[in-house]
Design goal:
about 160 residues, alpha+beta, five-stranded mixed beta barrel, 5 strands, rod-shaped, disordered C terminus, transmembrane helix
Length: about 160
Amino acid sequence: MDAVVWIVLGVLLAVAEIFTTTLFLIMFAVGAFAAAGAAALGAPVAVQAVVFAVVSALTVALARPTIRRHMRPSVDSGEQPFGVEALEGATALVIEQVGADQGMVKIDGELWTARPYDATQTFEPGARVQVIKVRGATALVWQDDISSPGELPEAKR
């Protein structure tokens, strides 16, 4: 009967992890499942508790740092960004007027829906903007200080 209690505890912890998404409670679920294994082998309750504590602590100490390292954005970890993360900071060309309700930009040859990072701004077609953040399939853009082709700002002449 002890194994069933540990299994129920493990399942409850795993379900709770789904709602927290911190990858912390799942470590204790692993400990509970290990304690259930000890209970199934006939270990006394004190040994089951020790198995739960040791396996949970080892899982937190050994697995969590690795998981956290892989969850960090590549910019923070010094790795080369890829996917949507690589678009942040890129220069984009406005194709359709970008305003609070609509807009289209071209980023590295691909068309993206866009909105201004500052909702009070609008950008006209042909303007160069910088991608500040990507939310879903929409790029949030900001006026970039890059000049249009063939046009040099006063400071660069």
